[in-house]
Amino acid sequence: MSHAARQFVTVAGSVVLAGTVWACGSDDRTRTEPTASGVASPSESASAEPASEWKTAELEGTQFKVPLGWGLSLEDGVTQVMAAPKDDQGNEPGFGLFDAGSTLALSTDELATESRNNVIGDYSKIERLQDEKFGGTTFFHIRGTGENRTYDLYGALVGDIQVTVSWSFGVEMASRQQIDAWINQVMPTFRFEG
Asked: Across the chain, which distance is largest between two alpha carbons, in Å?
């Protein structure tokens, strides 16, 4: 399967999986504090854990670390699912789909344009935000806002490898501040071990 087709399947899968509650284990060493709405939010104890003890999601020599309380699974043998901690009722507020593979894109801008054109879902607004650097690599950031789900897509070129993470969260499950805090726990851990 070509990487473009795999990316299409990954984005489509995030829409399908959006309503799914993942059966991922948790580790009691990472605590989440319920908010007024009962939704778990990132706690200080998760950020206090040394990232070296976190779980590793790895594809094509690229990797991210996720806190111990997060779920981590391999979907269809090609996509790592990084699930945010569950709330008090066992519901998962959202997840990131990490994919990596070869690409024909020649620049991060070309990859961002291609990725933006392939976004699937009912998003009232899709915009490209300012690029960010993680692990010394420049990532584009595309954000979409929908009626039920949020969508944040980060992508980068590492040599001839395309790395993408598409984050999706339920709008009734987490605030924008909580979503950004979860994403910002994982994205800065990016490494290329090539």
From this structure: 46
Output the CATH code of domain 3-46+54-192: 3.40.1000.10
pTM of the shown model? 0.74
Phi-psi region of 18 (alpha: psi -120 to 50; beta: other; left: phi over 0): alpha
pLDDT tens per residue across span 143-192: 988 888 899 999 999 988 999 999 999 999 999 999 999 999 999 999 99
The Cα angle at residue 101 between residues 95 and 102, in degrees rounded to 5: 150
Domain boundaries, the chain: 3-46+54-192
Query: What is the rounded CA–CA span in Å between residue 194 and residue 34?
Result: 39
**Residues in contact with 15: Cβ distance below 8 Å, sequence separation at least 6, in sequence order:** 120, 121, 149, 168
- Whole-angstrom distance between the N-terminal and C-terminal Cα of the chain? 22
List helix spans (H) across 53-154. 108-117
